[in-house]
Design a protein that fits this description.
The chain is an alpha+beta fold. It has one domain. Helix content is 32%, strand content 12%. Helix 1 packs antiparallel against helix 3. The longest helix is centred in the first third of the chain and has 16 residues.
Length: 120
């Protein structure tokens, strides 16, 4: 029950707040995103993350975001900061908020979300 409430809470916050595109909250397209320190990137060999290309993007296994299934992952490639490894596959997300929501999910919730967006 707790996992369901956690998932519902994360989903409600994302829906109510809107998905962010390129670090800018929905409805504030002209506003600059607040400066945030860049997260430390894990070494590719340690995380299993595929190596990023010259644009800093990684090939991902999904065409749509696991957290917001109606949002596409453009071109099957995502910026490294919008990628999480799960069950040996790189998963891309549509915006900055979704990886944080993903991190809060249980393993079972991650498996269910992944199954909806990754074709076997």
């Amino acid at each position: 029950m707790r996992n369901i409430l956690t998932f519902a809470s994360v989903l409600a916050v994302m829906v109510a707040g809107g998905c962010q595109e390129r670090g800018k909250p929905a409805g504030q397209a002209g506003a600059a995103a607040p400066a945030q320190p860049a997260p430390a990137e894990p070494k590719a060999a340690e995380s299993g993350m595929p190596k990023a290309d010259a644009e800093g993007k990684v090939a991902v296994a999904n065409a749509f975001c696991p957290m917001m299934e109606e949002h596409p992952v453009k071109g099957g490639r995502s910026p490294v900061e919008l990628v999480r490894m799960w069950r040996g596959q790189a998963l891309g997300f549509c915006c900055d908020d979704c990886p944080e929501g993903w991190d809060a999910l249980s393993d079972a919730e991650k498996d269910a979300a992944m199954a909806k967006v990754v074709k076997k």
